[in-house]
Amino acid sequence: MKIHHEGTNILILLFIVLAALNVPVWLFLPPWILPAALTLLSVVVYSFVFNFFRCPHRVFHGDTTDLLVSSVDGHVVALERVYEPEYLKSEAILLSVFMSPLNVHANWFPCSGTVDYVRHHNGRYLSAYLPKSSTENERSTIGVICENGQRITVRQIAGAMARRIVTYAHKGQHADIDEHLGFIKFGSRVDIYLPLDAEILVEMKQLTRGGLTPIARLRPKSETGLP
User: Fold this and answer.
1) Which of 73, 89, 109, 200 could form a disulfide with 175 if both were Cys (CB 3.0 to 4.6 A apart)?
2) Choice among 70, 71, 133, 188 that is catalytic
3) Can 188 be counted among the known catalytic residues?
4) The pTM is what?
5) Are residues 184 and 84 in the same domain?
6) What is the CATH number of the domain that holds 85?
7) Residue 26 located in a structural domain
8) How does pLDDT run across 48-66, given as a tens digit for each residue?
9) Could you give the CA distance from residue 108 to residue 60 in angstroms, rounded to a whole number?
10) Where in 27-164 does DSSP place strands (E)?
11) Which domain holds residue 42?
């Protein structure tokens, strides 16, 4: 299993810290029960962090014409009509996917196209389940013009455990549906704002896999009558 480069330094440092704790305990604190318990706990902690930073290679093999895929692993927690004031500046369908600490936390582009807007916002660290986390938590907003001309907004949102959002996308970049747009560390959520006439392909509480699960199909811009 490949490890995401965002986790390499953390895993090395954690290994050193845990080794520094375990070696003296085995040397100076007999009997073996206490050292064994500490070692077992260390293995569990390291395995959890190792699992968090896993980074599977994924390629979408279906027809991507007008199709959007999930940006992240998780389950759908919001699917509603809202106003998106930052990039689209219009009403849109909000589709939110929540990631638990056990999910892969790499973020994929939901479509191929062109990155048109990127902005990071400092904020709070409320539970990512809460609707107000979309506007009050630390977050990064990415506006993408999909290959069919339609615009969407992708928003990375920090959660109660997340303390760092990493965004690789930059304005003018080519967005590829098989590539990462960023990474969120330790529990979070991604919101995707879609045109109102998008065909939604997922339901509330449905599990999704980043880069693989189709979530919506867009009408080509030429059919919408929009400028």
Assistant:
1) 109
2) 188
3) yes
4) 0.80
5) yes
6) 2.70.70.10
7) yes
8) 888 777 778 888 988 889 9
9) 11
10) 67-69, 74-84, 90-99, 106-108, 113-121, 139-146, 151-158
11) 5-52
